[in-house]
């Protein structure tokens, strides 16, 4: 999706807000007033660019014909957040699974060492039977 300029983004946000508040689209004059423009020609130019970039559609004639096509900005942000959360959940599941393999032994991890004794966690895990592949998985899950 093509990036919006600051003015285009402001116009799109103004259209969205207007439609949410009133359940119908604004006229070019109403947009000009909301955006602080004296002339509607600037608004027409902004609307043409928004339509060209795929954010809105508008009829050539007639008032209140502006339609939001996609709320892609919100969709993209939601997708990024979902991916971030999915990755965090996967890492947490791996770490929990790895820790469960110690038959109920509870570990307090603090700064990649076992809490209090100064012994590196990876040494402890290796000495207590964790294979290298699982050890690497735990390191990765803990970000080490």
Automatic annotation (TrEMBL):
Span of domain LexA repressor DNA-binding: 1-65
In Gene Ontology terms, what is a biological process of this protein? proteolysis
The Gene Ontology terms for molecular function here are:
serine-type endopeptidase activity
Q: Which Pfam families match?
A: LexA_DNA_bind
- Name of the protein described by the UniProt record: Putative transcriptional regulator
Write down the species. Paenibacillus agaridevorans
């Amino acid at each position: 999706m093509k990036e919006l300029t600051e003015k285009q983004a402001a116009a799109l946000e103004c259209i969205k807000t207007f439609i949410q508040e009133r359940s119908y689209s604004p006229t070019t004059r109403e947009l000009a007033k909301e955006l602080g423009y004296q002339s509607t020609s600037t608004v027409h130019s902004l609307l043409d660019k928004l339509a060209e970039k795929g954010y809105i559609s508008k009829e050539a004639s007639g008032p209140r014909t502006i339609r939001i096509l996609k709320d892609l900005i919100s969709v993209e942000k939601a997708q990024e957040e979902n991916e971030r959360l999915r990755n965090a959940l996967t890492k947490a599941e791996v770490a929990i699974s790895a820790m469960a393999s110690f038959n109920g032994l509870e570990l307090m991890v603090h700064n990649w060492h076992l809490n209090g004794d100064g012994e590196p966690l990876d040494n402890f895990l290796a000495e207590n039977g964790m294979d290298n592949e699982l050890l690497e998985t735990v390191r990765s899950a803990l970000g080490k």
